[in-house]
Write a structure and sequence with these properties.
Nucleotidyltransferase, domain 5, alpha/beta, 34% helix, single chain, five-stranded mixed sheet
């Protein structure tokens, strides 16, 4: 089995043309030892159960499911998952409680999957916040999947 020093997953979610209740898109990027191995935009659905937070959680779930399905969690010394959603990052790190919201079932699934990655990884598993501009590739994928369906996304301003 080939061992990898660093596996990085990047995630972002979008909800348009309005939030909540719009259409959701998830963008995911996975790199192994700085080589791109996976990138995708995933349509998450629409309606009253959709929000930016739901799309963000769907995106992190996509990253984690990819790591597990590809067997990457079993080969890594370090797994780092990056996103620009403070809510998702802080909840997955146990810093903020998740007790209500449309995203709650997705949070529970993400925690379950992340526990599986942690169990399989020989080293550390970290979830880290990054600024939106640093997450541009996943952001673009989350929006592209919506725009391909004719759903207008508002232009993003500069991150604070």
């Amino acid at each position: 089995m080939t061992r990898h020093s660093l596996i990085e997953g990047f995630f972002d979610g979008a909800c348009a043309p309005h939030n909540p209740g719009g259409h959701g898109g998830a963008g995911v990027v996975v790199r192994v030892d700085d080589h791109l191995v996976h990138s995708a935009g995933v349509y998450c659905g629409s309606g009253s159960e959709m929000s930016c937070n739901v799309a963000e959680y769907r995106a992190v779930i996509e990253v984690i499911e990819y790591l597990l399905a590809a067997g990457l969690a079993d080969t890594a010394r370090t797994v780092r998952i990056y996103g620009d959603s403070q809510l998702v990052v802080k909840q997955l790190r146990g810093e903020w409680r998740a007790n209500e919201g449309l995203y709650l079932p997705h949070y529970e699934r993400a925690v379950h999957l992340l526990t599986d990655v942690t169990r399989r990884c020989a080293g550390s598993v970290e979830v880290r916040w990054i600024p939106r501009l640093t997450n541009a590739e996943a952001d673009a994928l989350s929006r592209q999947v919506l725009e391909e369906r004719g759903i207008q996304c508002r232009p993003r301003g500069r991150a604070a």
